[in-house]
Sequence to fold (429 residues):
Amino acid sequence: MANETLTITDNRTGKTYEIPVTHGTIRAMDLRQIKGSEGDFGLMSYDPALENTASCKSKITYIDGDKGILLYRGYPIEQLAEKSDYLEVAYLLLYGELPTESQYKKWVHDITYHTIIHEKVKKFMDGYRHDAHPVGMLISTVGALSTFYPEAKEIFNSEIREIQINRLISKMPTLAAFSYRHTVGLPYVYPDNDLSYAGNFLNMMFKMTELKYKPNPVIERAIDILFILHADHEQNCSTSAMRSVGSSLPDPYSATAAAIAALYGPLHGGANEEVLHMLKEIGSKDKIPEYIKKVKAGEFRLMGFGHRVYKSYDPRAKIIKQIAHEVFEVIGKNPLLDIALELERIALEDEYFVKRRLYPNVDFYSGLIYQSMGLPTSMFTVLFAIARTSGWLSQWKEMLLDEERKIVRPRQVYLGSDRRDYVPLEERG
Ligand code: ACO
Fold:
């Protein structure tokens, strides 16, 4: 396209600058040449929550928030949810293409045979209080894996890097399930290599005294699809944490622990837990209008609604709503579903939500499914973390191999005190 530039006139000096526009963006560093006076540092952009700042170039995930489109490496999420499985999607995210049959077999084999964790990890998991939150346990045990694999810090050795990627994807369900078993006082269940990724996770969560755990195929598939839907979502809060922490070049276990911590908050991966609390608090359909009134008055937010990027129906929420019906047909309907459906119906007709383009997001229905499967609310973010690990690692690897990579170090607008001299304690008023 001709004339892909931006002309800026600085009214402070009357000077004009021509700045290149590439991929619909200008380089923030190109602003630095714009100086109000001699010795001025140069112009910066101010973007507190990075709402309008592209922090990287990426080839992994594409989102069109207005149209409700989500693509992994170009493939629509709807097709992947219907036809693929989580491990194949993880491969796609990490390596850019769907695997061939032999690549797929090797990949599944490698992941399956890395699922066992060092016995010492079990020992320090035992040290947590009985009521420790599983996310807290996951953050610290994932971080601690770096001490078991010290070679992991050789992040530019591709062979070593790939082994850590395999380990993280394969051990995450084991650590997650162990943290759950710890909180309910049940013995840890070791991985079963005959089962699928999702089936083995269910085995480690729920196996009791039976010799062989047989996952219910509908639930196993539902978990697998939920993992696909949560696998990546471009530069969200936890992925930005992964890239940001990763930019100082620690091992991937440490960076992943930071990403899980970012996921934990109620505005991100913790939202599905909050949705259940909210639905329970509402209690019955007739209380919904009163609840919505309070949301509109700004007393609190409708959890599972709204999204920084989607300004239409989150495509993942559509798929999850469908899975919810399938799962409930097998294991009985979650009584909170009717409240959720009615809440959605009322909200989507309400001017407040319509005007602000607030729609159900991925978390609105996922908690209901997890709860019906017998998963405690404290495990919801943990499930999200298992799924997102492949996305975090894909983004981490892309960042590491990016020729423009540098340590992340944003600027600030300093509005504090000017230089002043220290006042001894006895002289302070
Ligand atoms: N309920 C009620 N009002 C809302 C909600 C909500 N869930 N979300 C946004 N709004 C309102 C805001 O009050 C604001 O209104 P105003 O213009 O009158 O002040 C307007 O919509 C815009 O809101 P922002 O906070 O600017 O939107 P932002 O993009 O920063 O926030 C977020 C996105 C954090 C997801 C927000 O919608 C929210 O808090 N949702 C509830 C938590 C949630 O479900 N998080 C999960 C997100 S999906 C994920 O992380 C996997």
Q: What stands out?
A: The first strand starts at residue 5 and ends at 10.
